[in-house]
Specification:
Helix content is 83%, strand content 0%. By secondary structure, it is mostly helical. Helix 10 packs antiparallel against helix 11 (246-302). The radius of gyration is 29 Å and the shape is extended. The two termini are 55 Å apart. InterPro entries: T2SS_GspF_dom.
């Protein structure tokens, strides 16, 4: 009977592994087919991502509509979240959930009360550490939106930094071939995803609506605090005012950014060395010493020439 139970359990887990394997294969094949259909039918995958993002923002808006009731209170209780700071975070993160400053301020208060309710409920039920949950759940609810939006803004600026050199090289090559800057930007951004495409698509739309080019450049600076990106836009503004060729500006900026990236990698490697030394000193070395000492003690007590054999 026991053998039958063991065989049944092994068979169950074998079936689960086979299911996961075939599911993974199915998902990979589905992804390849969708990419092929997109290429054949000239459907832009980025537009699909934007539609999904907008749909997710609409769902989130329905879920957080009650946050508007707390917006006035949230703007008064604005610890670590002044209105101008929130506006800057939303702008630099790309505002993927289409939040307004008022709704964001209300959302943190709503989550504060939800955390307080959960803490009281846990305390009434009698869960372990319920007092700590009651104390920290409201604080976590208050600071969670702030931490998430700041993390999203930092992540977005990092993506811009990574994609920018390749983007600049491509635009520089197009401009050197005789294509105008506006046309080059429209064509090149079709081959990029993420924040680079979002920012320059918005830039092109502003130019189409009649916004002066320098003002559109200034808006790019306001929406992004990445040093490399800001250096590029300032160089473009200066080149536009002084008449410097755009292709030369893009090429120089791309080379400078790659050099900066190389220096940052070297800096990170240099910072990693003391950390490795610290781990080695306080973890590996003591464990090694204890192992050697333990072997010596065991040899003294249980070896051929042990202390017990002498007596």
């Amino acid at each position: 009977m026991d053998a039958l139970i063991i065989i049944t359990i092994i068979g169950f887990w074998l079936c689960i592994l086979l299911f996961l394997k075939h599911m993974w294969t199915f998902l990979q094949e589905k992804k390849k087919r969708l990419e092929y259909v997109s290429e054949v039918t000239n459907i832009d995958p980025f537009e699909k991502k934007e539609k999904k993002k907008n749909k997710r923002a609409a769902v989130f808006e329905q879920m957080t509509k009650y946050a508007d009731d707390f917006s006035d209170l949230g703007q008064r209780i604005n610890f670590f979240s002044e209105n101008h700071d929130v506006e800057e975070w939303l702008r630099k993160s790309g505002n993927p959930l289409k939040l307004t400053v008022q709704r964001f301020q209300g959302l943190k208060i709503l989550l504060f009360f939800i955390g307080l309710f959960i803490g009281i409920l846990v305390l009434i039920i009698g869960f372990p550490f319920s007092q700590y949950i009651l104390a920290f759940a409201p604080i976590l609810g208050y600071f969670l939106p702030i931490l998430l939006i700041k993390r999203e803004a930092k992540k977005r600026q990092e993506l811009i930094r990574k994609e920018l050199p390749d983007f600049l090289d491509t635009v520089s090559t197009s401009v050197q071939a005789g294509v105008s800057l506006d046309h080059a930007l429209r064509e090149v951004i079709r081959h990029f995803d993420g924040p680079i495409r979002e920012e320059f698509s918005r830039f092109n739309n502003e130019i189409d609506l009649g916004v002066p080019r320098e003002r559109a450049y200034r808006e790019l600076l306001r929406r992004n605090d990445n040093p490399e990106f800001q250096s590029l836009i300032k160089a473009l503004i200066q080149g536009m005012n002084l008449g410097v060729p755009i292709a030369t500006t893009f090429k120089i900026q791309a080379e400078d950014m790659r050099q900066i990236r190389e220096e940052k990698v070297k800096e990170l490697a240099a910072k990693a060395s003391p950390k490795v030394t610290l781990v080695t000193t306080f973890l590996i070395a003591p464990v090694s010493i204890l192992m050697i000492a333990g072997l010596m003690i065991m040899n003294m007590l249980l070896g051929e020439n042990s202390l017990f054999s002498i007596f």
